[in-house]
From TrEMBL:
Its EC number is 3.6.5.-. The keyword Ribosomal protein does not apply. SUPFAM superfamilies: P-loop containing nucleoside triphosphate hydrolases. This is GTPase Obg. One of its GO terms (molecular function) is hydrolase activity. It holds the Pfam family MMR_HSR1. InterPro entries: G_OBG (IPR031167), GTP-bd (IPR006073), NOG1_N (IPR041623), P-loop_NTPase (IPR027417). Keywords: Hydrolase, Nucleotide-binding. It comes from Methanolapillus ohkumae.
């Protein structure tokens, strides 16, 4: 996944502690027997600390992807969770700090060489370096928060997608498991305490992803917070169709009237093609609502093949971002 390579972002204290401990060990390994060796030892201390800090700060900026080249889906989610501009500003500040420490260290090397009191110049450099690191403390925290949120995003790819919506216990996860013929991937999702299920199926050599989104779509729109609504908006970035699953048997614990109401709310909220499907047709208490065309049973498999054909037909054809001109003019 795009953000998996982002490692833990260190704090200002952790960076300084690591740099200064290493520089102290560098000094301990030096033999000081006169003014020249004393200057060289202090210079080595300064360069060791500065190199550690610049390397670590540069690593922080390199770990994050180029947001302008991200798929729109992930760009939107990053913007929702943290704010892309905020992340980019913090990355710029960290990059500035790395460059500033590098320049400052080189300047102070000149002040240490030949100095009768090289430790004073080195301590002054350490003080200025510390000020630079503490000045980006909030930026490091922002990037740490971004890293923790982005690493938990599900691996949703830019491929034909079926989004499964509906109340809890209507059979959404069972549907994903049935049509993908495998245990779906369980991915932590940052918008709720629940996760989402992702499965894949292949039809006519085309791979489709099937996404169960509990916590996002199983509550009335009026009860959703802004982040949940924006998450739904982000899902629109996918070439997808929304399948809203209902349970007319009401064994899920919710009345059919409430289920249909929420189904219509989802259809109004999404600009994606959608279809309402009745599940649990194998149960005695099942009674198909008049408005529902497709009826299935995830327990027996009844009606699922026909439904899949309809869902695949409904998936929008991806738009071509660029089409090569025909050199022959036709």
């Amino acid at each position: 996944m795009i953000f998996e390579k982002i490692k833990t972002i260190p704090t200002s204290e952790e960076l300084l502690d690591k740099a200064f401990r290493r520089s102290t060990r560098t000094m301990a390994g030096k033999k000081i027997d006169g003014p020249t060796s004393r200057c060289e030892a202090n210079e080595a201390m300064l360069l060791t600390a500065a190199n550690i800090l610049t390397d670590n700060l540069s690593n922080v900026t390199r770990m994050f992807p180029n947001f302008e080249s991200l798929p729109p889906f992930y760009y939107d989610l990053a913007d929702i969770l943290i704010g892309v501009d905020r992340i980019k500003k913090s990355l710029s500040r960290v990059d500035w700090a790395s460059s500033k420490i590098h320049t400052l260290a080189r300047d102070y090397v000149g002040k240490i060489r030949g100095n009768p009191a090289p430790a004073d110049a080195r301590k002054e450099a350490f003080g200025r370096i510390s000020s630079i690191i503490y000045s980006i403390e909030s930026d490091l925290k922002t990037l740490g928060d971004a890293r923790n949120a982005l690493r938990n995003l599900p691996d949703i790819r830019a491929e034909p997608t079926i989004i499964v919506a509906g109340y809890p216990n209507v059979g959404k996860s069972s549907f994903v498991s049935y049509v993908t013929n495998a245990t779906p991937e369980i991915a932590a999702y940052p918008f709720t305490t629940k996760g989402i299920l992702i499965g894949h199926m292949e039809i006519n050599n085309i791979r489709y992803q099937v996404i169960d989104t509990p916590g996002l779509l199983d509550r009335p729109m009026s009860e959703r917070n802004d982040i949940e609504l924006q998450a739904i908006t982000a899902l629109r970035r996918l070439d997808a169709v929304v399948m809203i699953l209902i349970d007319p048997s009401e064994s899920c614990g919710f009345e059919i009237g409430d289920q249909l109401k929420m189904s219509h709310e989802i259809q109004a909220q999404f600009s994606l093609p959608s279809i309402i499907v009745a599940n649990k047709s194998d149960r005695e208490e099942f009674k198909k609502p008049d408005e529902i065309k497709y009826v299935i049973s995830t327990a027996t498999g009844n009606g699922i093949d026909e439904l899949i054909q309809e869902l695949v037909r409904m998936i929008p054809v991806p738009k071509k971002e660029f089409e090569e001109p025909n050199p022959f003019g036709y």
